[in-house]
């Protein structure tokens, strides 16, 4: 923690420790969350600790979080974003969004609801099925008045 930026001292239920996490948590109880993982997270195991990457992997550090997890023999997974969401922008989420999505999932037990309650509008996120419907609609260039309804 940055000693010059003391904002973190006001965080509730957070313990700041000097030990490396490997001294505090068994590696079988850790899961690195990284979009580079081939494994898709289906459920959250509340007995595990999830490491949310703080490095921006999409530039010259591409894949570093996934590589670190593999090298250390730590489990890894990505959020099931692609199963529920189509985005206009890259599927790179800010650390705070990942944290908020996890909290929302723990409350709702529904990934789709968790994603759409947190993702900012600038990401252009739409539900996966609706994204396909919208692109078909745009390609046809027609409005389907029979399918317009307020009950959707």
Protein architecture, described:
With about 150 residues, the chain is α/β, with parallel strands linked by helices. Helices cover about 35% and strands about 10% of the residues. The strands form two sheets. A three-stranded parallel β-sheet has the order 2-1-3. Strands 4-5 form a two-stranded antiparallel ribbon. The protein starts with 20 loop residues before the first helix and ends in a 12-residue tail after the last helix.
- Distance N to C terminus: 47 Å
The helix fraction, in percent, is 25-40%
Mean pLDDT: 78
Q: Main β-sheet, in a few words?
A: 3 strands, parallel
Number of strands: 5
Please supply descriptive tags for the structure shown above:
152 residues, two-stranded antiparallel ribbon, 5 strands, 34% helix
What's the arrangement of secondary structure elements?
Elements: H1 21-24, E1 30-33, E2 49-52, H2 64-72, E3 75-77, H3 81-84, E4 85-86, H4 95-108, H5 111-118, E5 126-127, H6 128-140
Parallel strand pairs: 1-2, 1-3
Antiparallel strand pairs: 4-5
Question: What can be said about this structure in brief?
Answer:
This protein is of the alpha/beta class. The chain contains 6 helices and 5 strands; from the N terminus they run H-E-E-H-E-H-E-H-H-E-H.
